[in-house]
Design brief:
Number of strands: 0
Strand content: under 5%
Number of domains: 2
Distance between the termini: 39 Å
Largest sheet: none
Number of helices: 10
Oligomer: single chain
């Protein structure tokens, strides 16, 4: 992506995050994002299909940045903590994207980000993976999908509870996780 496109995408991402923190994403318009970002509608539609998709993209970029710690992490809880810190920092945005569940593109991208993190964790720590999954890629995909979807569900419930205790959220999500992920 050329520098101009990267700049436009950055402006659009920041604009949607700003607006979605103050207004439910269902009420945020492409026009409002364009005004906030200082770009044209043509520029908007070159980078996004709509406000919800742009929001999902912006949040995914932030999660990807937070998950860069995984290769150096001592425990999967470090990644979980980074994810919860991201969600907490953007809690107004995530809550504004819930009706009562997260908007489909936001939820899908969050789940995909978690899935990628779990796959990376398993690759970095193959000794933790139970034998039943080692020789069966399909079974491993099922285990990863189960853990990722469960984590998203737990995050949604945490957001609904208005509980601000990030340490507690991390502890509870890890306690609900299959134990082998934690080794």
């Amino acid at each position: 992506m050329d520098a101009r496109s990267q700049r436009s995408r950055g402006l659009l991402r920041q604009a949607v995050l700003t607006l979605a923190a103050a207004t439910p994403i269902a009420d945020v318009t492409a026009s409002a994002i364009c005004v906030e970002a200082g770009v044209t509608r043509d520029t908007f539609y070159r980078h996004a299909d709509g406000p919800v998709e742009l929001l999902a993209d912006a949040l995914s970029a932030e999660i990807a940045e937070a998950m860069r710690i995984l290769p150096q992490a001592d425990a999967i809880g470090d990644g979980e903590r980074a994810l919860i810190e991201h969600v907490h920092r953007r809690s107004a945005v995530y809550r504004g994207a819930m009706h009562p569940l997260l908007a489909a593109p936001v939820r899908s991208n969050l789940e995909a980000s978690i899935r990628s993190g779990l796959e990376l964790w398993a690759q970095l720590h193959p000794h933790i993976v139970p034998r039943v999954f080692v020789d069966d890629p399909s079974a491993m995909r099922i285990a990863v999908a189960y853990a990722a979807a469960g984590t998203v569900g737990a995050i949604e419930e945490w957001l609904r509870s208005d509980d601000d205790d990030r340490d507690r959220a991390v502890r509870l999500i890890l306690a609900a996780s299959p134990e082998w992920w934690l080794h």
